[in-house]
Amino acid sequence: MAVAEDIKDRVAVEDARIPTVICDDVHIVYTVNGGGGGRGSATAALSRIVKRDKTGGAGRGMRRVHAVKGVSFTAYRGEAIGLIGSNGSGKSTLLRAIAGLLPPESGRVYTDGQPSLLGVNAALMNDLTGERNVILGGLAMGMSREEVKERYEEIVDFSGINDKGDFISLPMRTYSSGMAARLRFSIAAAKDHDVLMIDEALATGDRQFQIRSEERIRELRKHAGTVFLVSHSIGSIRDTCDRVLWLERGELLMDGPTDEVVKAYQKESGR
Ligand SMILES: Nc1ncnc2c1ncn2[C@@H]1O[C@H](COP(=O)(O)OP(=O)(O)OP(=O)(O)O)[C@@H](O)[C@H]1O
């Protein structure tokens, strides 16, 4: 009887874990025009395109960068997952593949819902004011005009852009990189996402903003989403994530609870 109860409990726990992202042996390869002896003219570029081999693959002068190598994992609803690893280890590439922006060379990415990638380079329009960008950004994320209107003040307050004067009515190009990153984060974080991926966004804001963002990430998790965070700040990863994936040279070295993975990473990298 007790055994049956135990099994029932375990099944219930398993049921509660709803997968949101599954990566199955994912390989990502960039094809780069790696040479041509420095011939950079438009005619040279055109002739390279014309001469490209019929397979459409890496022809003469093309180089392949194998950025992600056979990565497999399953992410569940409610998890906040940190991605760590040295420069060029494939963290951003993996996120871009999960967002559907890069096709895997082989393997598969399955996602439940539309993942949103919030990168430091996410596109806002530099010539438009912060205000217009909040509105357009909200609409682009699928919010209605009403929702954007309702959330507008909250987004601007969260970003802190107006703390030192009326900056929200100035074009984005007048913002510092930290201010722009804060606004991007604030727009993206205004919505509850199925899967939200944040690439280094926290590293750009000041400490106060980082604390606010970390709080917001915790809230987003409560609303049943899955959050991925790429960061070189081990502090941010510790404060926000309960699970960490450690990538090195495109391979998944370790996947486990934050404490264990961070400890191993710090031991290896001497940080
Ligand atoms: N657009 C691109 N074209 C060609 N190669 C690329 C491109 N973007 C990244 N790479 C290569 O892919 C590899 C992984 O890069 P990626 O940006 O994913 O690493 P990362 O772990 O996010 O690095 P960082 O911590 O420095 O941001 C690197 O070798 C990089 O040179």
Automatic annotation (TrEMBL):
CDD domains cross-referenced by the UniProt entry: ABC_KpsT_Wzt
PROSITE patterns: ABC_TRANSPORTER_1, ABC_TRANSPORTER_2
GO molecular function: ABC-type transporter activity; ATP binding; ATP hydrolysis activity
Gene3D superfamilies per record: P-loop containing nucleotide triphosphate hydrolases
Annotated ABC transporter domain residues: 44-271
Keywords annotated in UniProt: ATP-binding, Hydrolase, Nucleotide-binding, Transport
Domain of life of the source: Bacteria
GO CC annotations, alphabetized: membrane
Keyword Transferase: no
Pfam families to which the protein is assigned, alphabetical: ABC_tran
InterPro entries: AAA+_ATPase (IPR003593), ABC_transporter-like_ATP-bd (IPR003439), ABC_transporter-like_CS (IPR017871), ABC_transpr_TagH-like (IPR015860), Bact_Polysacc_Export_ATP-bd (IPR050683), P-loop_NTPase (IPR027417)
Protein EC: 3.6.3.40
Family of this protein: Belongs to the ABC transporter superfamily.
Entry protein name: Teichoic acids export ATP-binding protein TagH
